[in-house]
Amino acid sequence: MKVLKYLVPPAILSLLVCLSPTASAEVLKLENSQALLLVSTDSNSPDSDAASVSLIEAGLVDPNSALTIDADTVLSFYEIGQLDNPGPHEDCTVPPCFDNVSLLVTDNKGNVLAYVLQRPADAVAKTPDANSPGSYGEVFLDPTGIYYQRNLLSDFQTLPAFDPADAQISSIEFRVDEHGSAMIDKVALGPAAVNNIVPVYRFWSPDLGSHFYTTDAAEKQAMIDVYSYTWMFEGIACFALADDSDANSVPVYRLWSPVHSSLFYTTNKTEKDWLLAVYPTIWKYEEIAFYAFPEGRQPADSRPMYRFWSGLLNAHFYTVSQNETDNLVRNFPDVWTPEGVAWYAFPPQWNWAEAMETLRDHDASSAGK
User: Fold this and answer.
1) Does residue 214 share a domain with residue 276?
2) Which class for 249: exposed (0-12), middle (13-18), buried (19 or more C-beta within 10 A)?
3) What is the mean pLDDT of residues 211-233?
């Protein structure tokens, strides 16, 4: 992934809600999109060191897209970030009252919803208080989620002061508090129909020599929290469908082999049934993992998910990346054998590992100045 950096133009700098001497804002060219990078460090000043940008005014969100808050208003975005020894704020007057990375959405009546991403491990969300104005609330999101999708009406309705009549979004603000840095990309407001599209998370186990894929956020988090010694999180492999609401979709079946310590995914029911009938001691059926598209019925913006088999590792591998596919075919023909297209899915917009590397490189270079 080629990354180009350039400072936010002066016209955008003037739109920064807060930019202390120890904070910076940059736009990174990530492939075909622009990602906003905010960095803030502690200046030991009694004033806030938060770096905050209005995404609508800065041109990173189209103000003509879907600013009405109704049942079809879905906010989606990519984010990665990290905090250095995050802690609480003393004498806090502007919440969240702890070091954080947040996306704050304000409606036309002054109600504020803070989607809190990075934060201290012991942070507690400030919930709406019906006995006060009730116009502010915090929603804690998975800090390792990478891709996020929220229905704004459902979230705003948790605020006692929110009135859905003629409700509109007035601002979307990305904020990085002191001791932190984060990137945000692909901020979009779209119809609720995209809610059935889910990220497929990918893990790699050097010990087992196999990959693991899941759309289950709880399962993903358990792999990170409990099994990190075996499974390395590699980000989003692709986007698939959570259900069969699209008539062209088919189920992707998930099978587990306790013998090979590997998972197998297929849309071919005959193949699934054959494995279970012929190798009942090797393969166990688990569930429908997600839904995808068979060849010939795929949408124009989908990509082929290539399938490989390794007799050496006794494992399958799946990828929508053409570069990854070409690399395996060219450099590892003795390890991985291509088996064609498994199904079609939507490609991820970010290479998570490379984006994290960009973030770390930036922090390292800034620390060395």
Assistant:
1) yes
2) buried
3) 91
